[in-house]
Write a structure and sequence with these properties.
This protein is 47% helix and 13% strand. By secondary structure, it is of the alpha/beta class. Among the domains are: 203 residues, 3-Layer(aba) Sandwich (Rossmann fold), CATH 3.40.50.1010; 166 residues, Nucleotidyltransferase, domain 5 (2-Layer Sandwich), CATH 3.30.420; 140 residues, 5' to 3' exonuclease, C-terminal subdomain (DNA polymerase, domain 1, Orthogonal Bundle). Helix 7 crosses helix 11 and helix 22 packs antiparallel against helix 25.
């Protein structure tokens, strides 16, 4: 929603703060409010509150701490309306406390490896939003905060401190409140003098005394044994202060009193170290901490790089000063660049509008019409609730399918199905599915703005129209309630006029984006991929989703029961081994059983103790031979299989078929992904997992399923790209590729190569195609790192062209900023020049991986296009059902077996002309498992 913001009073520092503070709360001549944030404390809290595996970029950069920190900042700026803000950060060197007590903070758990690289990113964000980052050598962030709080108090400011460090409680006064984290990121408890007194039984000025007695484990400051907060508070309240308590220590009876007397030196040391410095030289005053103007372009660039969704950006912008005067709501449409002349078509009016505004002469490929669909789609079907068309010049129409007469319907069908009237749309496949359910074809689409943006920046996670409009058009458009629509302040979305405007703006944005993204693609060499591969593939994928694949529901239910029984048996066996019942799904209970009761070797230390993940359990089983880790792994495997089968059962449609949804814009390498359900993730490495594939069967009216996949396609692409003669020769010979490679590396005759040697070289070859390091190879093969390194050296000594190619890929990518596939698909890797070694190493592995994996993705997509076209042109009833990585599954119609098998093998084998043949393996059967080869 576009809203008007009042211009801040430039003569008042207090009124120049965060967006809302300029007109309420802390501004407008009222008392200034200083917000101080403990940077590392908040960042750590965000890190552990949000799952690290769910927040990360396609280049491997973890982002959960940055995302959580930004979310907390938004809440603080919105709710507290500060006029002045600063973030205090710890530095890595020792502090004055280490000089007195060398063991200060010793024994802390290792910082998670995903955390450190997020600190400079968070500091960058603070700088971009106009907040000062402050730190001081020899001091902690607490000392910086204490100094600033002291400054703020002397300047007559209200002070707020956001920190999870209880030492800050000693700073609490009537004018200084600590916002202390609760159970969630959004839960901040206001620690006022009354709240501290109620919680700890002492006043804030005596909290340091209490902490000295109790100690602080996180700082490695041992307290008085057996003395907790309640006892310490009782003593302090009785005697008035720690000094008086110590003076009367002889009066304390019992063991607690003796412990106090025995540990007086620790208590006095703790009290000295707990005291926060209030005189740190910072080079700023409290008045200097007025929030500056946000660098909007910089924030956009950072959020794009971190692949954050638009909703966080919207919330952040709502509380920042950007220095940009925002337009009135009434003028928003024109000032945002959308001068829309909107017609809400009543019954019988759409046909006339299309004749007047959407003729072939008025809509061209250089200036296509923007099309937006309101409705739902997925799993091979959809529904249109409304649609909007916006043509060059600004004329736009909104139509409700339920309000159209026969002439309107005929005219709309003609427009949509006319390939000579170019159109741009966001999420082309969804529109195809939704329109198709109404009997309308969609042709002439020259741009899918989501696909085009994906080809421009494949490393992004999401391609929302809101984000794209902001980035490429410089226009602020807000998502509707479901995140699928864009809206201006032009009426309620519940009212027809509001809905019409929403969709018209979406159509206009799509129209304008098409031109901008087309220019970007031209600069990046991706135009032919959009028009020659990705857009045509949308039609093929939509057909596959509509058709689906037949499923044997009864067999799936049988498997579900079997896996559930196996999981229960594993639980019973685990209980028998331990001798009591416990929850196999509770990491805390597993730690207690494994490491305390059974005394098994400790695994990797984590925040909550010691890890009990699958790798750790496998290690425990191998190291100890104990039965429990084996049963725990078995339980997890069977539970995962049961969950997979349950998910498949839920997605079987009324037609007895499963209709997955394919995504073209998820994997940065260009590979397709599958969701609802994920049919590319059906287990195939174990016999029990492969049994699930038996549930996918030939449908009624068809004879068999045919599976066709590429043999060793990654290695064939490596041979092509590296031009290594020995690799090319091995493929062209027709013999066992891996055995020949092993013979050359180990200096053996091919006949003398055993299974172990062949397996090592196979892992070696594929590992190089995936950017595997020597350490990764050692882990995969279960050998020492030195042996893996020697194996790599021997491999490169024999196949020097591979080594040279891999080196050149990284060097070239570092120079130009991207890698390319054989068809010109680019993968941009800015972290190749990062100062952060972890990010740079990850980018280098991606640079090695992307050309090979991306080329394989290109080839299978071209193969799908060629197979589908050949089936159609040949008049065959057989059809492509699924694509799973390098494999196609085809349903063969009666009497077409031989012709279709030959057709598929030929079209897949000629999808691209490599220096080595594209090997295609074909199999047939009544179900997916039996059709394997």
């Amino acid at each position: 929603m576009v809203t008007k913001r009042e211009t801040p009073d430039q003569t008042s520092q207090a009124s120049a703060g965060a967006g809302s503070a300029a007109s309420s709360g802390g501004g407008g001549g009222q008392r200034p409010r200083l917000l101080l944030l403990d940077g590392h404390s908040m960042a750590f809290r965000a890190f552990f509150a949000l799952p690290v595996d769910k927040f990360g970029t396609s280049t491997g950069q973890s982002t959960n701490a940055v995302y959580g920190f930004a979310s907390m900042l938004v809440k603080l700026l919105r709710d507290e309306e500060p006029t002045h803000v600063a973030v205090a950060w710890d530095l890595s060197g020792p502090t004055f406390r280490h000089e007195e007590y060398a063991e200060y903070k010793d024994g802390r758990s290792d910082t998670p490896q995903e955390f450190p690289s997020q600190v400079p990113l968070t500091q960058d964000l603070m700088r971009l939003v106009g907040v000062a980052n402050l730190s001081a050598p020899g001091f902690e962030a607490d000392d910086v905060i204490a100094t600033l709080a002291h400054m703020g108090g002397e300047a007559g400011m209200e002070v707020l401190i956001a920190s999870g460090d209880r030492d800050a409680f000693q700073l609490v006064t009537e004018a200084c409140t600590v916002l202390y984290p609760g159970k969630s990121l959004s839960d901040l408890r206001r620690m006022t003098p009354e709240a501290v007194q109620e919680k700890y039984g002492v006043s804030p000025r005596r909290y340091r005394d209490l902490a000295a007695l109790v100690g602080e484990k996180a700082d490695n400051l041992p307290g008085v044994p057996g003395v907790g907060p309640k006892t310490a508070a009782k003593w302090i309240e009785k005697y008035g202060s720690l000094e008086e308590l110590i003076a009367h220590a002889d009066e304390i009876k019992g063991k607690a009193g003796q412990n106090l007397r025995d540990h007086l030196d620790d208590v006095l040391r703790n009290q000295r170290l707990n005291e926060l410095a209030t005189d740190v030289e910072l080079g700023v005053t409290a008045a200097d901490l007025v929030m500056g103007e946000a660098d909007r372009a910089g924030i956009d660039a950072l959020f794009d790089n971190l692949e954050f969704a638009s909703n966080l950006r919207e919330r952040l912008y709502a509380v920042l000063r950007t220095g940009e005067e925002e337009p009135d709501a009434a003028a928003a449409g024109a000032e945002d660049g959308f001068e829309i002349d909107l017609t809400v078509a009543g019954t019988g009016e759409l046909a006339a509008w299309l004749v007047r505004h959407a003729s072939a002469e008025g809509v061209t490929e250089a200036a296509p019409a923007g099309l937006a669909i309101e409705g739902v789609w997925g799993q091979g079907t959809g529904r249109v609730d409304g649609l909007a068309i916006c043509v060059p010049g600004g004329a736009a129409v909104y139509a409700d399918p339920t309000a159209m007469d026969a002439a309107d319907t005929e005219a709309l069908a003609a427009f949509l199905g006319d390939a000579e009237r170019p159109k741009s749309v966001h999420e082309y496949k969804g529109a195809l599915l939704a329109l198709g359910e109404h009997g309308w074809a969609l042709r002439g689409v020259v741009s899918d703005t989501a696909l085009a943006a994906y080809l421009v920046q494949p490393g992004q996670r999401r391609f929302d129209l809101v984000d794209l409009a902001r980035k490429y058009l410089g226009r602020e458009l807000q998502e509707g309630g479901d995140g699928a629509q864009m809206t201006l302040d032009l009426g309620s979305a519940e009212e027809p006029s509001g809905r019409a405007h929403e969709l018209a703006v979406r159509a206009a944005a799509t129209r304008d984006l098409a031109a901008v993204l087309s220019a970007e693609l031209d600069k990046r060499g991706g135009t032919h991929l959009l028009h020659g591969v990705e857009l045509p593939l949308v039609d093929v994928l939509a057909k596959m989703e509509r058709v689906g694949v037949a499923a044997d529901r009864a067999y799936l239910e049988e498997l579900q029961g079997e896996f559930a029984a196996a999981a229960r048996l594993a639980v019973e066996e685990a209980h028998r081994v331990v001798g009591r019942e416990f929850n196999l799904g509770s990491p805390k209970q597993l730690q207690q059983v494994l490491f305390e009761e059974l005394g098994l070797p400790k695994t990797k230390k984590i925040k909550t103790g010691y890890t009990t993940d699958a790798d750790a359990l496998a290690w425990l089983e191998q190291e100890t031979g104990h039965e429990l880790p084996k049963q725990l792994l078995r339980h997890r495997d069977q539970t995962k299989l049961r969950t997979t089968v349950e998910g498949l059962i839920k997605t079987v449609g009324d037609d007895g078929r499963i209709h997955t949804t394919y995504n073209q814009t998820v994997a940065a390498t260009g590979r397709l992904s599958s969701t609802d359900p994920n049919l590319q993730n059906i287990p195939v490495r174990t016999d029990v997992g492969r049994r699930i594939r038996r549930a996918f069967v030939v449908g009624e009216g068809f004879e068999e399923l045919l599976t066709a996949d590429y043999s060793q396609i990654e290695l064939r692409i490596m041979a092509h790209l590296s031009q290594e003669p020995a690799l090319i020769e091995a493929f062209n010979s027709g013999y066992d590729f891996h055995a020949q490679m092993a013979a050359r590396v180990f200096g053996l005759d091919v006949e003398a190569v055993d299974a172990e040697a062949r397996s090592k070289i196979k892992a070696m070859s594929y590992g190089l195609a995936y950017g595997l390091s020597a350490y990764g190879l050692s882990q995969q093969l279960g050998i020492a790192p030195d042996e893996a390194k020697k194996l790599m050296e021997d491999y490169f000594a024999e196949f020097g062209g591979v080594r040279d190619y891999l080196r050149s890929v990284v060097d070239e990518a570092r120079k130009v900023g991207y890698t390319e596939t054989i068809m010109g698909r680019r993968r941009y890797l800015p972290d190749l020049t990062s100062d952060n070694r972890q990010r740079r190493d990850m980018a280098e592995r991606m640079a090695l991986n992307a050309p090979i994996q991306g080329s394989a993705a290109d080839i299978i997509k071209v193969a799908m296009l060629q197979v589908d076209a050949a089936l159609t042109e040949g008049g065959h009833a057989s059809r492509v059902l699924l694509q799973v990585h390098d494999e196609l599954i085809v349903e063969i119609a009666p009497g077409e077996r031989e012709a279709v098998e030959n057709l598929v093998a030929h079209e897949m084998g000629t999808a691209y002309d490599l220096r080595v043949p594209l090997g295609v393996s074909v199999g047939r059967g009544q179900n997916w498992h039996d059709a394997a080869h």
